[in-house]
Amino acid sequence: xxxxxxxxxxxxxxxxxxxxxxxxxxxxxxxxxxxxxxxxxxxxxxxxxxxxxxxxxxxxxxxxxxxxxxxxxxxxxxxxxxxxxxxxxxxxxxxxxxxxxxxxxxxxxxxxxxxxxxxxxxxxxxxxxxxxxxxxxxxxxxxxxxxxxxxxxxxxxxxxxxxxxxxxxxxxxxxxxxxxxxxxxxxxxxxxxxxxxxxxxxxxxxxxxxxxxxxxxxxxxxxxxxxxxxxxxxxxxxxxxxxxxxxxxxxxxxxxxxxxxxxxxxxxxxxxxxxxxxxxxxxxxxxxxxxxxxxxxxxxxxxxxxxxxxxxxxxxxxxxxxxxxxxxxxxxxxxxxxxxxxxxxxxxxxxxxxxxxxxxxxxxxxxxxxxxxxxxxxxxxxxxxxxxxxxxxxxxxxxxxxxxxxxxxxxxxxxxxxxxxxxxxxxxxxxxxxxxxxxxxxxxxxxxxxxxxxxxxxxxxxxxxxxxxxxx
Length: 472
Ligand SMILES: C[S@@+](CC[C@H](N)C(=O)[O-])C[C@H]1O[C@@H](n2cnc3c(N)ncnc32)[C@H](O)[C@@H]1O
Hints:
By secondary structure, the chain is of the alpha/beta class. The protein has helices spanning 3-6, 17-37, 42-53, 57-72, 74-85, 94-109, 114-129, 133-144, 148-157, 162-170, 174-186, 193-200, 216-222, 239-245, 255-265, 285-297, 308-317, 365-368, 373-391, 408-420, 430-437, 455-458; strands spanning 208-210, 225-226, 233-235, 250-252, 275-278, 300-305, 326-329, 344-350, 392-402, 425-427, 450-452, 464-470. S-adenosyl-L-methionine binds at residues 280-286, 305, 331, 350.
């Protein structure tokens, strides 16, 4: 019998490492092509493609870093490619450009040896872009001749002003750089702009919400690490598996989203019988927290969502909560509160917004959003605010929340609604409510009536929270 036959069975992937890594690169390429082509979202598509390709954990991590990192840094990489190729990115075939961007990310930001990055991308180019392989080879070799730091200096020195420099180096469109600066200036913290932009380019940790009264035992059994701020938040060694095994009682959720939901549910003690509404509930992350809080306090929740498929996600998000939650499909602007007498005691308006506060999670979002989206959204936010205020009982509380720090969507939409409803709505001290909810004091700036969370300061998405009370 040969020595090999006597060895215990090995469970390692028998394919040579090159082939396995090539498959990860192909997955990342497919995802970037789909994102470029249409409406695909990397965070939804990537897990499916990884599963379909049968990648193991290490290869899946490589594909994820390659796809997400390349998408985030696309603006910077295109400038590098333009200098190395001696032509504008818009003049390069889009598929070839994707192959090049993936190569540049491996060379400048991943620990892939230059020769491996170049050879593998040339092989990929041969497969997907035939005759362009020679061009890919030449450009990537030129990129690899210069170190990452020197590329940064070269790219920065090609920019005319500070906004251009920040935009190029941190790979954010200039209008987003300006919007972030304005939001930070609004709270007297303009000096934090670079830290914010850098934080956006860093992959966020996977954070968990332990649904109050429901998920604590499973969380304790798994030995989770409590979050710094959210009293129901935690991290775990294998968060996805823990969430999947919990029957919906432990959920993946950003700490800032948890604080936003808790700001409403814990703004004041719950009186049994209260009626709550989540006006724009899909996909249901905050609705799940509210439903658990309502269950514990003797309140009931209605969750409304305009898009049927997203209302279905709300239903799924609520499976672990043993409470009757009515899920409605409808335009929140026409919400039926059942007459003034039967209005709601608390309403969450987690408004449709540009999502500029969650760019870490949606790597392609910064390239898809347009300044023209802002006025469309602020109009909708205003209409939803009017509907929400109209659906509140006198004395009832509204939480206006956005996952965008853009001041038009935060102070702009809010201020206009306050002016329209002057005399019947007042602002509450949101800051003290959120500080009261938080495990540790949050470093918050600006006025006491609103709370703006930040990725660079709090490690959360940039959530904006404002609590209002209807006075009559
Ligand atoms: C920011 S998301 C809400 C996120 C949700 N609260 C969560 O934590 O999972 C905004 C939601 O509003 C929905 N939406 C957009 N326009 C709407 C409208 N006119 N009425 C109700 N929902 C709307 C969107 O489909 C989207 O699901």
